[in-house]
């Protein structure tokens, strides 16, 4: 008999449980266990040396024939759990694909005519037939003990369909001779813009529905070609690099021992640098993982990758895919069938076979830090993998995190800088002083309106960036001052005029705008502030015949919406694009002439330790969309034009902001000079939340030797109530290297709190 410590996957568990097996199993192998009457998937964590308990349960089934993890993946799980103070059971879940759609399922088989079921059903289906899982598992246990039923492991086979290349066989003008359906025309338009594409991409991006006959119809008409190999003439071609790019490539290849921070201005060709570095890795049989912050970036990168590495297998891994698609990608990556995986944050945990390089593009983006569920930093996790698995790591950005610039400065990272744009100059940046300069209306200055008109006359595109969506930031009663707020969250409701709805952008709750004030009964309701919808309305008045595009979470709800909008934006010709942060994510529009930034001061004044860095990064990324082919222009409207952030923007000098920010952080004690722990207490009762927060602070105060340890709070955060829970916040700043003492003190409170370690913002 063999004894193992098993971690229940996805459970808030800090230690494994001892189980036995009559078969030898491998560390990292998944199994099915019976835990408190529930059948759960577990991970063989380590061999148990002793058996102190008389009754030890047996492992029900092995899920995997062999371990899909190696020793380094187990160590990664331990390091992430320790660093981010996360239950190891929840961290274990991150290493595997979505459990709900895994290829392994438990199936209940009737063994007797007396059984309540006459044919096999899946375990989840059985659970749904009861009021709650506890009752279902208790009843199932009785059936199993009575030998009326048995449980077996069902494995769904993954079909390896050949992914064909799809390409247009004729010019776009010629296709109009054919009478084709709307969906067929979508395929034609997509191929004309993006060129040759894999069939799987057309499905994953919603261009074609699975099971549709559109592709076959177009093939029979001779409009498209389907082939098992690429027809592109320039696959695997060499790309001409400039001196700075070539130097960066050589430095990265010669020094694989530490992570490389590739710090290059927007449009400097950083992508070509890491493509060039990835080439010898792929040629020698190694695998590459490329992380991006947004789903919107995956398609563009995939198209570029196909042109450069047409003979290699590549796939997406992100939340825009169905669970089953993500499962298939995961197994292919783990089994070594994929050479390249492009994914968002969660892909950092895929235990890829023969992984030799991780590239993190736009590494400054805060979305690499997971706030919901188990919290972790994907960039720190990548650094752990680099050390554990001896792989190369490249972090790339035009505005790197100041903590990473500090690591480069102190020698933990190598630094490769690219100071010039590829093929063109940096855009001209102008600051409009909204206190002095002439205004066209209360949203736009006269200079902005004039410059938009000039760009449109040149048949060029304009981006207008505004921080928020909706029509107005809030609605107020001018009689009594009442502001409409969310019942579940302590935030004002945003007004969306088109639907006449008040919507909470935190919990999603919405309601109709009433005709009168619920407090005083007055009818003088006024909107304040502006978002994308209001900006669109005003621009439509100013430029009534010009095409307008809106890019925000209100109008773009699916991956297909995103793809359609981005494709429309890239079509040649004049357009005004109004958007929020979504338009900052590496969007490359060749004929973009002008970028306008409204309400730029909003982010600078956030009460957050990271406000200077994140604001400068955001504004520089927005500004960097301009003039990718020819020199462009950026106009920023501000009431604080003297701020250092705007000076650095004019000079395209992010170093200035980073240096000032690091000095301030050193003085006031913030990362990277301390480890910052943010503890958030949540409870539907405000009194219980306060009591729990005070209890935690009292316990933390008993910790010995607090010279390098500072406790702040508890305080009510800016958003005091969120999704029905009242919140209290505690901040700990620590210069200690080992935080086991803190983990021990907080362990008993984990079900009442959320811990964030070095979060990119304290406004969670």
UniProtKB/TrEMBL annotation:
Q: In which residues is Zn(2+) 1 bound?
A: 477, 480, 517, 520
Give the protein's cofactors. Answer: Zn(2+)
How many cofactors are bound and how?
Answer: Binds 2 zinc ions per subunit.
Q: Which keywords label this protein? A: ATP-binding, DNA replication, DNA-binding, Helicase, Hydrolase, Isomerase, Metal-binding, Nucleotide-binding, Primosome, Zinc
Spell out the molecular function terms from Gene Ontology: 3'-5' DNA helicase activity; ATP binding; ATP hydrolysis activity; DNA binding; zinc ion binding
Coiled coil region boundaries = none
User: Pfam families from the xrefs?
Assistant: DEAD (PF00270), Helicase_C (PF00271), PriA_3primeBD (PF17764), PriA_C (PF18074), Zn_ribbon_PriA (PF18319)
Entries under InterPro entries matching the protein: DEAD/DEAH_box_helicase_dom (IPR011545), Helicase_ATP-bd (IPR014001), Helicase_C-like (IPR001650), P-loop_NTPase (IPR027417), PriA (IPR005259), PriA_3primeBD (IPR041222), PriA_3primeBD_sf (IPR042115), PriA_C (IPR041236)
In which family does this protein belong, per the annotation?
A: Belongs to the helicase family. PriA subfamily.
User: What does the UniProt record say this protein does?
Assistant: Initiates the restart of stalled replication forks, which reloads the replicative helicase on sites other than the origin of replication. Recognizes and binds to abandoned replication forks and remodels them to uncover a helicase loading site. Promotes assembly of the primosome at these replication forks.
Under what name is this protein listed?
Answer: Replication restart protein PriA
Organism, per UniProt?
Petrotoga halophila DSM 16923
